[in-house]
Amino acid sequence: MESNQPHLPKKSSSFSSSRDEKYREINRNLSLGSIKLEQSYEKKERHDQETIEEEREEEKATKEQEEEKEESNAEEPEATLLTISEDIDRFLRLLLAVEDGQDGSHEPPEIPESTVEKFVTLVEEEIAKYETGEEKWPSGDDELSLLDAIDRVSKLTSAVAKFSSEPKYNEAMNHSGSVLHHAMCFLEDEFHSLLQDSRTKQEAASSSSRTKQLPSLIYRFHEPERSASPSAESTPCESSQAYIPENTERLHRIADAMISAGYVTECCQVFSIARRNAFEVGLPSLGFEKVGIEDVIKMAWENLESEIATWVKAFRHTVTASFTAERELCEAVFASHRAISDRLFLAFANGAIIQLLTFAEAVTMTKRSAEKLFKVLDVYEAMRDVLPTVEALLPDDGEQDEPSVFADPKTEISSLRYRLGEAAVAIFCDLESSIKADNSKTPVPGGAVHPLTRYVMNYLKYACEYKNTLEQVFKEHKHAEKPSSFDEDRENSQTGGGGDGDRNSNSGGSDNYNPFAAQLIEVMDLLHSNLESKSKLYKDLALSNIFLMNNGRYIAKKVKGSPEIHQLLGEKWYRKRSSDLRQYHKNYQRETWSKLLACLKDDGLQVRGSVAKPVLKERFKSFNAMFDEIHKAQTSWVVSDEQLQSELRVSVSAVVVPAYRSFLGRFSQYLDPGRQTEKYIKFGPEDLENLIDELFDGNPSSSIASRRRT
């Protein structure tokens, strides 16, 4: 049985040795791995140690460099705007050379970042120092230094912006642009403060504590708050002239800096607002307050007269004084920019004139009446007289560098002046209507000067004080046909075209036709006709002639007393009216004293060679009654002109008294002495003279008989 079981194989010696070799190999590999790991650890430790040593050496080197740098900085002066500006200038020249292609390279230079950074930072710190009020921005070298630095920031920003595609310039461009904007806000505020400061240098020194204003850079499309609170406390003229030269020069430098940096709009806006406010605040110091058109139209004439007088003063002062000073200020502040100076002055002048002309325009819209003529002429003359000044100060349209968006003040003044001239002519011509409308049927008591005569002549006397102006406006606006009577009335007249020295007068043609003189003659003729009609209202022809004498003498006296009226009417007209006066005088004597003198005639007194006593008695009786009646009536008549009154009394006495004395001397002897003489001879020659001297006093008298009884 044992022989049938299979035999198990035995391990051979070779198999055992193979396995042992594997074990030994594994052990050997493990040993080698351990050795390699140890070697790796050792190598890493050595590397780490070397790294640490290198870092220590670098730190040491860095520290040494910093120490050297600190030592170097301690030895060298601290960088300032002045010292670092030279580096900035060199960099700017490099940029300009690249831009112009002068260096043969199109690659922009490397930007000195530390230098640029330090420079703009210093500028910003300098501005902040003055903004916070820590220090007052001084004038002189320090001011120029800061302005120069700001100018470099502007140039730097502009220069690097041309290389905006270069990434390396972006940071410098952003920083310099931010600082530039900050600088412009600062300069704008300083500009505004200087413009408002029209006081003394000592007061200007306190401006460091001023309240800051929001710059218009922030509110570009909104008017700054400063426009609502003007602070200049001076007249329009003084507000421009009161700037001390030092401040004017600072304004000029700041304006140049802002304009060079491209902030023209902001600079001009601040200047315009400040100057406009100064003008508006200055107007009340001249007595003129802004009044709306409707308020002017509704204003009582007494108040409007005063307002017009004040306006004329303010308007003349504004154009002749304020405009000249404002022009000088604009030219001083914007000396480097003539076009800007012209534009700003034109804006100022336009605003000021439009504001003032609004009032004048309202005056032309008021209801016309005769008494308004003189104030209308005052306004007209003010505009006429200032126009040459405006023309001299403002450039012609062809001289302007660019089209103006403003209305031309010269055109505005000329247009309104033309309308005022039309109004003046219309008002004066309305005088004819006033004369025609005076058709009262009630005679003036005592034959005195009629109120219409006084009104017209006083009106003409006052109007002819504006003779040259009225001649001018009539030649401009009165184009009526020359009346045929004009040449006759003007023959031998001394009047010509316009007044002497009136630059606006013209001859109106080759002849001496003067529309105003013709209109004046027409008014006088119309007045004469009106007075003759009124004289017919008196039932007593003698009184009618006294009325004509009174009015004629009043007119002649006014004409003679006014060289302007006398010149316009002419000598021949005056002689003709004087002749009329003499005729009225003759008519009066004929109507009054001829009948009385008829009682003293010899006719009918003698019958068959002897005096008829009854007839003589009747003659004395008639004379006494007639003289008593004349005396009673004519003592109530009025001759207010003392010379005319005396002339009338003398002329009456010269006719009546000698005739009565002669009659009395020849016929008194035929009356029985005593009661008969007293009954019929009631007056002696001297009595008549005294009684005649009582005539024309305007004092009603009782009859002579009743006076004798009392």
From TrEMBL:
Residues 310-694 form the Exocyst complex subunit Exo70 C-terminal domain. GO terms for biological process: exocytosis; protein transport. GO terms for molecular function: phosphatidylinositol-4,5-bisphosphate binding. Residues 18-27, 39-50, 477-487 have a biased composition (Basic and acidic residues). Residues 67-78 have a biased composition (Acidic residues). Residues 1-81, 477-511 are annotated as: Disordered. It holds the Pfam family Exo70_C. GO terms for cellular component: exocyst. Keywords: Exocytosis, Protein transport, Transport. Component of the exocyst complex. Belongs to the EXO70 family. This is Exocyst subunit Exo70 family protein.
